[in-house]
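Section 4.2 – Deliverable D4.2 (structural model, holo form)

The reporting period included a commitment to supply a predicted holo structure for the target in complex with manganese (II) ion. Inputs used:
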Amino acid sequence: MTQPVSLTRYLVEKQRAQGHIPGQLRLLIEVVARACKTISHSVNKGALGGVLGSAGSENVQGEVQKKLDLIANEVLIDANEWGGHLAAMASEEMDTIHAVPNRYPKGEYLLLFDPLDGSSNIDVNVSIGTIFSVLRMHDEGRAVREADFLQPGRCQVAAGYCVYGPQTTLVLTVGDGVAMFTLDREQGSFVLTGDGVRIPQETQEFAINMSNMRHWDAPVRRYIDECLQGKQGPRGKDFNMRWVASMVADVHRIITRGGIFMYPWDKRDPAKPGKLRLLYEANPMSWIIEQAGGSATTGRQRILDVPPQNLHERVSVILGSKNEVERVTRYHLEQAGQ
Ligand code: AHG
Ligand code: MN
Ligand code: MN
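Output (structure tokens):
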């Protein structure tokens, strides 16, 4: 019988074989995974752990914070502060960056996270998750500034998410493909359950919040309209729809069996480029999707090439199976006359 490969062993062997993962980065990934394990336990306890419901506060984006949003945020900060691998952190739930306190040694990495993605699903026992992105701090030895985090997604050195569903699954890329690990609760470790993950190029499944239809831009309407026409329409095949309202769960489904996910720009608030946040939602997910052979664009450009202007900025997101994302992007470019 082949031995199960733990996350630790996977990282050590990758580091040894390819010199791909520097020691500090390996530590960082392990610490994030450990924090996800702790969050997973809290999620599992639910009402028994007193972790459900609202925290009675709002984040910088005006969203009501749930208790678990704040618990997950604390867990990630506490786990990552003292190890010497980070210079600073940033999160959906913190107005500004969190530099590693002076009492701890500093490292060369910057960590961004959405501590709890899919907050509206916490209290109803539907899959939620954690998303993270790792950047390099280029100018070590001086105080970290918010501007240090404003790097395009193509500069990421690691990205991942952990989905807390029927299983707790960690999905990771360090730039050479995508690996998947399932939490073995008896052993207390993440075990490799998928390597070199590939997204099918074709799909018959789309994910979009249809209740926003009246606000969509013409290219998105056109694409969905054609899907809805099914076999009788220009696509010549029937489509199915899924919308979990947790990006982690929707992306995980796409990673597993293909599909397209869209939270596009819409006309509700034209000044707002979308709903999802560029630095800790769109960028890590886009890199994972690309690393699995899929594609991720705003409709007009590759998400990983978008130059960030501020920490919490939002972006239009279209990602998943390559052929479908290219089609929606083509519809946008045709509209723009390009
Ligand atoms: P978060 O819970 O971190 O704020 O993110 C929620 C996001 C994303 O996970 C999901 O795809 C989307 O919001 C759901 O939006 P709707 O409520 O409009 O469906
Ligand atoms: Mn989120
Ligand atoms: Mn969140």
